[in-house]
Amino acid sequence: MIPSFLVxxxxxxxxxxxxxxxxxxxIEGINTLLQTLFGTRLPTVIGGSWAFAVxxxxxxxxxxxxxxxxxxxxxxxxxxxxxxxxxxxxxxQIILGYxxxxxxxxxxxxxxxxxPVIALAGFGLFDKGFPLxxxxxxxxxxxxxxxxxxxxxxxxxxxxxxxxxxxFALIMSITVIWAYAHLxxxxxxxxxxxxxxxxxxxxxxxxxxxxxPWIKIPYPLQWGAPTFDAGHAFGMMAAxxxxxxxxxxxxxxxxxxxxxxxxxxxxxSRGIGWQGIGILFSGLFGTVTGCTVSIENxxxxxxxxxxxxxxxxxxxxxxIFFSLLGKxxxxxxxxxxxxxxxxxxxxxxxxxxxGLSFLQFTNMNSMRNLFIVGVSLFLGLSIxxxxxxxxxxxxxxxxHTKAGWFNDFLNTIFLSSPTVALMVSVFLDNTLxxxxxxxxxxxxxxxxxxxxxxxxxxxxxxxxxxxLNRFFPPS
Length: 475
Fold this sequence. Notes:
There is one protein chain. By secondary structure, the protein is an all-alpha fold. Helices cover 66% and strands 1% of the residues. It is found in: Membrane. Keywords: Membrane, Transmembrane, Transmembrane helix.
């Protein structure tokens, strides 16, 4: 969806979009392997991030690029500018991660402070759920109903002692509804419908399969040498910070759904460092966006009850395989998006509920805690919604000064629900009666997971492979 939205704005054609999709899938596979091997080692998939959309759109509308008349040349010039900004901005996560500065910051987090952040990592994406599934109700609603039935009501059905429905509900649901959508398309059900309806419902509108090459190997600097601009880079740094915060909430949710202990501070920081490397790769290869933890795949851990990092690593191998064989990747990209949006209604909800589950470690009879959680959740939803509505009406964000980099920075930060929730909840949690409320905040339960040796299970979950802990001893 990200390349489909951004590449046409950049002047790219369907062939360019296919190459960007392949490159993004290729880098996502590599970054997922690196994260599960050397990063947090949690079973998380690293995907593209919408957090980078604001600074990227700002780059697309830069006057030095819009005056280029040839669409393909404008696409290449814009891509190189985005690459340069991503390369520079990746240094934020690399420095915060490998210097352990984010580990120090995480010591100010408590269960009360993390509840709104993790919950809004799911709730904050509500506009990616039923509003998009409703773009094609005859596909979205059956997909939602079928997925719920297979994954919940029939999850105890077993074949040779294998819980088939619970493990494969998503694949079976998508296959059935995708075939149903293709049947509607082939029968001419949408022939006289509006263009918007056909775009969301038809299985043959993406024009990706015909333009995709059979084999194409992405490589660094395939679009040309990146160009660097200080204003572009500074705006992109805000998106990098948003990606960092959203990933922090996602890692904590993934650890809970995978039945692991919360990641110790240095493990969390190590994961952020590797995510910074991932954004650097995104800039070098030209994926048109940065990377973050895939929230929907975190929710899938709860739906399938499969928390094995080996499964995620095999999935990453398939991502790389399909990115090299363009026709296969394009085939899956032709699935109508309302099918995925219907699944998001379940998966994002699961992630949100994991955030709320942290309340069990706190005292919710405390008016202090009720105030912090309530205000953080409300502002985390309300402020980004204000920024979205303002931008839709005025065609620019509330921050609209002559300094474009400043506008991008503020508009990006306050469009992210988890980021707003983190700023509000952590500030209130560490300033409101924090000395006398450690037990109410859940700190006695939380503090033992801050260090690697605080819990005996940490070694099983977070020790580096290939005996690398000899060179990088846990702190």
